[in-house]
Amino acid sequence: MSDTLRILGFQPSKNNYSLFLKQSGNSIALVAVYVDDIIITGNHFADIKAFKTFLDEKFRIKDLGELHYFLGMELLKVPNGLIMTQRKFAMKLLKEFQCDKLTATSCPLPPLSKRSFVEDTLVDATI
After folding, report:
1. Do 31 and 80 have their domain in common?
2. Phi and psi, residue 84, nearest 5°
3. 73-97: pLDDT as tens digits
């Protein structure tokens, strides 16, 4: 797959071996590959569609449509972008350890507070 992407003009990321970028004029395309899953995104729909057609002819891919869930991350579309959350994963953990029916409670400590391991006192976390 990486050889094919390079032939098509995609450059591998220097920081992540599974991320590829192709820039041509105003067109940008990103491809993330994880085992047998591929995320394709870009700013020109026609280029993305042609690229997916090429991949299907070469590798017989299955287009699952818009991305909603990937590697434990849930992606929710909002008017001004995306929200990434692990809500589904957290709910699964709560259920697995029978904590999904517990009553919610607020934290009794102020935000950013830390406890001392030596004494039973609060430590100023702003220092």
Report:
1. no
2. -105, 130
3. 899 989 988 899 998 888 899 999 9
Are 74 and 112 in the same domain? yes
Question: 1-54, pLDDT tens digit by residue?
Answer: 899 999 999 999 999 889 999 998 899 999 999 888 899 999 999 999 999 999
Give the whole-angstrom CA distance, residue 37 versus residue 107: 39
Q: What number of other Cβ atoms are within 10 A of residue 20's Cβ? A: 22
Alpha carbon distance 35, 87 (integer Å): 24
Residues 57 and 108 grouped into a single domain = no
Query: Locate tokens 């950013």: which residue?
Result: 112
Q: In the structure encoding, which two tokens stand for residue 101, read together?
A: 């029916």
Residue range of the domain that includes 11: 1-65
DSSP 11-63: EE-SS-TTEEEEEETTEEEEEEEETTEEEEEES-HHHHHHHHHHHHHHH----
- If asked whether residues 71 and 126 sit together in one domain, one would say yes
User: Model-level pTM?
Assistant: 0.66
Same domain assignment for residues 55 and 2:
yes
Residue 117 shares a structural domain with residue 92: yes
